[in-house]
Write a structure and sequence with these properties.
7-stranded antiparallel sheet, binds alpha-L-arabinofuranose
Length: 511
């Protein structure tokens, strides 16, 4: 049998995990909002139209923060369409996804949903077709107490107290040709600086997220970050980047090793920040907001690879006609292999906990999501629900730096340890929690841990996501095809057998 050992020491700390790395994303896209989180008249909806069945699952996912309202949607969105009496709100053509937007759900509705769900709202402003003035007015509408036109309008619309929304994204994927109002780095930097100025004049307490670059095939990838961060340096605390992994026929090992691609991607953004901070003679000001990450297999988008999006101005979607209200689009069906891959990606995010301070699983409901709803029925936990739920539950504390030895495997990213893992020390419980992806396809792997500085450690729990059929999915008929199982602990020593192709959570109790 193959063997991998991870050595840890109490004093070899990488950094603290920011709870905001367990965040997600709701966009006005398909059935994410309508018949997702919001459906007046549904049997599980409350008086505001919020679906309680969805809310319960969101709570179970331990989500910190939810980004809203887009995504590509935001780059041609006028937030003023979504406030005030619902019968007066305009119905509009929505160009990002070629749908009809009814505006029955807007900023006030989202804020109320977020408060009821117990998540912090993070709002993106339109820096595509929108203006700096409109972005400033949105901050005034949300965060100013009273006595001005926009703050008094919020009060008239039913919210007496200001929302005090802290996190604001300065646009979305502005480097991309498919974005309404797409800009060059230089033009975006100018526009975003003016928006940032106005937004901070209204509320100096807010934290701003610059729109960074995301796609390696884009001509301005990383150069964008240099230009943008240099200009926006005084105003922003974070730079965003997005990363999606696709199972596009590269083979199981290469797809499973997506965690390594994400690792390289984050390192690239770190290097761009380092460059700008070296010039500014400062270190550690700009943090990374990975505000979209997931497996996305483009099951209903006509491209073979994410790289094929280069130069595209729209997405060709096969699952619905154009100009429908809340069409069932981008409703990816995830299998066990996708879930293992998501688990691997989540491990990488922990391994960058010193730099990545916000990370949003994109998205939350129906659209590329761990939660699926039926319009006239219930809710389903997709396979990808489970690794996220487990890591957001147990991944709290300090990440430890490992030294790794043992067997490896070869893939497009080089020679990698057969087990990819991250360990978190949780002071409150005096536990070390290890998340481990066993990439061995042929046989189980013996996984050993040496943990020094914590006294005698005892293995007390082992949870696993595994199965013989990597293509199996959860369905409304068979919702428990893929779930987390708790393994029987026969030996409390720090050596365990990890099933082949499995994602594991091991809990060690320190002395
Ligand atoms: O999450 C789906 C889309 O992916 C978002 O709207 C966009 O930001 C990205 O291209």
């Amino acid at each position: 049998m193959k063997h991998v050992t991870y050595h840890y020491d109490k004093y070899f700390e990488l950094g603290e995990i920011d709870p905001n790395v367990y965040s997600s994303f709701i966009e006005h896209l398909g059935r994410s909002v309508y018949t997702g989180i919001y459906q007046p008249g549904h049997f599980a909806a409350d008086e505001a139209g919020f679906r309680n069945d969805v809310m319960d699952l969101v709570k179970e996912l331990n989500i910190s923060l939810v980004r809203y309202p887009g995504g590509n949607f935001v780059s041609n969105y006028d937030w003023k369409d979504g406030i005030g009496p619902k019968e007066k709100r305009p119905q509009r053509m929505e160009f990002a996804w070629s749908s009809i937007e009814t505006n029955q759900f807007g900023i006030d509705d989202f804020y109320r949903w977020a408060i009821k769900t117990g998540v912090e709202p993070m709002i993106a402003v339109n820096l595509g077709t929108g203006t700096a003035k409109s972005a400033g007015e949105l901050v005034e509408y949300c965060n100013h107490e009273k006595g001005t036109y926009w703050s008094d309008l919020r009060r008239k619309n039913g919210s007496q107290s200001p929302y005090k929304i802290k996190y604001w994204c300065l646009g979305n994927e502005m480097e991309c040709s498919w974005q309404a109002g797409h800009l060059s780095a230089e033009d975006y930097a100018k526009k975003a600086c003016e928006a940032a100025k106005l937004m901070k004049w209204v509320d100096p307490e807010i934290k701003l997220i610059a729109c960074g670059s995301s796609y390696e095939m884009m001509p301005q990838y990383l150069e964008w970050d240099r230009v943008v961060l240099k200009a926006l340096y005084p105003y922003v605390d974070y730079v965003s980047t997005h990363n999606y992994n696709m199972n596009a026929g590269q083979g199981t090992s290469n797809f499973l090793a997506s965690y390594k691609q994400l690792d390289e991607h984050i390192k690239n953004t770190e290097k761009a920040i380092d460059y700008v901070e070296a010039k500014e003679k400062e270190k550690g000001k700009i943090k990374i907001c990975l505000d979209e990450w997931n497996v996305w297999n483009f099951q209903d988008i006509k491209v073979d690879n994410i790289e094929d999006l280069l130069g595209k101005t729209s997405f060709e979607i096969t699952s619905a006609k154009k100009w429908e209200i809340a069409p069932g689009i981008l409703e990816e069906k995830y299998d066990l292999l996708d879930a293992l891959t998501v688990g691997g990606l989540a491990i990488t995010i922990l391994k960058h906990c010193d730099r990545v301070k916000i990370a949003c699983l994109a998205q939350l409901v129906n659209v590329i999501a761990p939660i699926t709803t039926q319009k006239d029925g219930g809710v389903l936990k997709q396979t990808t629900y489970y690794p996220f739920q487990m890591i957001s539950k147990y991944g709290r504390g300090t990440v430890l730096q490992p030294v790794i030895e043992g067997d490896t495997y070869l893939c497009d990213f080089g020679e990698l340890p057969l087990v990819e893992a991250a360990a978190v020390y949780n002071k409150e419980t005096n536990q070390i929690r290890i998340f481990a992806l066993n990439c061995s396809q042929a046989e189980d792997t013996v996984f050993s841990l040496t943990v020094t500085g914590f006294g005698q450690c005892k293995l007390i729990k082992h949870f696993v996501l595994k199965g013989d059929d990597l293509k199996i999915r959860n369905t409304f008929e068979k919702p428990d095809n893929v779930i987390i199982e708790e393994m029987h602990i026969s030996d409390t020593k720090e050596t365990v057998q990890l099933p082949k192709m499995s994602w594991n959570v091991l809990i060690l109790e320190a002395e």
